[in-house]
Amino acid sequence: MKESLKDYLFIFVGVFLVALSLEYFFIPNNIAAGGLTGLAIVINHYIPAISTGPLVFIMDLFLFVIGFIFLGKNFGVKTIVSSFSLAGMMTFIESFLEPKAITNDLMLAAIFGTLITAIGMAIVFNANASTGGTDTIAKILNKFFHIDIGKSLLAVDFIVTLLGAITFGINIGLYGLLSVIINGIAIDKVIEGFHVCKEVTIISKKSDEIGKFIMEELERGCTFLKGVGGFTGKDTFVLYAVLGRSEFIKLKQHISKVDPNAFITVGEVHEVMGEGFKNIQ
């Protein structure tokens, strides 16, 4: 229950960031940076009586059904919450706050709008949800074909940028394409950052004590590998563990006390699956 509430809190935060970037960077500058929101910007140009918020909601309903079928009930429930939230936030901002472009410089609008959008969408994806629309298609491609979410978005959003170029001109269309490209790369990088762990190998005379600290104090598993010292020719143990960043800091502090001469190598891993981490799916 606590984990579920945490996911929904992250979803609202992520959606809020996406809504801000759309209403204050993209929509006022007619930058159709892919997705249903980009398509809504194009449609709104031809049918100004319907604002982008309601347009996004209507188109989301169709793709939501597809996502519900292919991605399961849990994903569907979270996605409908995020979709309603995004459409609702956009409609509220358009109705009561009269949003205006923070900057009319298309380059600045494209860059900062895209970075804020990427952070927001990555937060939503990390909670196993989507802001709806083409995000849902990207999630389906990621699940069944193991294509990075960012690259999937790049593929499915490309056609929207072409429509934007046809509607608003080649210059604005190219800025939309630039936003899509940056968005795809940035989302993958932000998602990777959520899951980065420290891969640690330790050679120490106090390996038993260090291993006990990892298992009992950090509540993580570790593995002892048999080795032979190249210089001494003596049998030794190599301790291997994967830890979170805060856990690694605690381990390093402990090792500095029990064996300051320990040999440690540290690497970053961007995805860890198995007991104590996320499920293998």
UniProtKB/TrEMBL annotation:
Gene3D superfamilies: 3.30.70.120
A Pfam cross-reference name: DUF2179
Membrane-protein topology: Multi-pass membrane protein
CDD domains registered for this protein in UniProt: YitT_C (cd16380)
Main location: membrane
InterPro entries for this protein: DUF2179, N-reg_PII/ATP_PRibTrfase_C, UPF0750_membrane, YitT
TM region(s), chain numbering: 7-25, 54-71, 77-97, 106-125, 158-182
Keyword vocabulary terms for this entry: Cell membrane, Membrane, Transmembrane, Transmembrane helix
Domain DUF2179: 220-274
Lineage: superkingdom: Bacteria
Cellular localization per UniProt: Cell membrane
Any one cellular-component term (Gene Ontology): plasma membrane
Protein name: YitT family protein
